[in-house]
Write the structure tokens for this entry.
Amino acid sequence: MVVVLPRFSARVRALAGQLALSVVFLVLPVAAAAQTSTFEVADRAIVSIEAGQADIQIKTWDRPIVQIEGDDDFGGQKGSYPGIPDVPVLDARLRFGETTLSLPREDFAVLTVPHGMHDAVKIGSSSAAGLVTVTIPANTAFILVRAVGGRIRMNDFQGGTFFVQLRNGVVAMTNSGGDGFVQLLRGHISVIDSNFSRLRARTAAANMLFENCRARQIEASSVAGSIVFDNGGFDGMLARFDSQDGNVAVGVAGGGQIGARTGDGHIFTSFARNVPIETRPNETNVALGGPASPAINASSARGNVFLYDGSLANKSNLADEWQPMRQLYINRRRNFSTRIAPRAQPKPANQHRPPSAQYRPIRLPKLRAEIFASRPHRV
């Protein structure tokens, strides 16, 4: 999975074989039959989804209802919650034998939840396993998704803040937007046709591929993964892409001022039109011009940096050094061609479960604050 060139550090080369199998191991038998439950909520609701091994799909609709269609483990509870000022994220570590990749602690501010009480729905638990589709109102203020392994898919959520944490697997977003935080330790992140006001994405050993996206503020970083922001638009403020051991590729659709830095790697450029390019050892600056000319920063400590205009799909005569970046497209298609489902967990033979009890709406005056992620947590 990690896209690196042969000249990269020995540590990353040792990880490559293990990472290539990370998604394959997630193709497991499909769990049992699903059931449906619904919860009516007021405007600007809060939704929390938690799971162990799961395939989680999130959709939106113009109805004031949270609908859960999933396996036995994904029951729901409705309550109320006073608001979420920020989400502290504890440091995360991923071990490969004697090698440890670390992500530091940081906070993510939630700006879309107004003061006052909000309807809140909690779905699943840390041990939940199976398939689940959650449909939420389009005006949901905040949705939090945490899982250990599997796949998280989000379509058409644009009006609030999303917070996604997955340890191993795939995070896929289409036509999404608003504010968001995504953390994945190992696997692949794919974002297509999306427009973000503010996005923070970070990985340990997972690649990121953004296709046809726009961002007003974006910060994407990885320890050993590669990052591609292809045919992207920038609306000013912060745009930063950084990897320690992986490659970074930025394809700009429009204007901007690009600054590229690398330590032990190289910087490659491919522009269809003549643009001012200033080069110095381990540093390149490209002036694309355009209104406001947003500042775009791309860097890699031990990998290569690739700068270009438009999409890699339209670049036919690139040198061999560019091929690892093209490989990310092939990997994405391979990852999403097979349905990823968690292994069904057998229930104890003597366990008694009343019919539909797991899916009956539980009306609580106020759910405990700790079931929503307003506290530090690990995944």
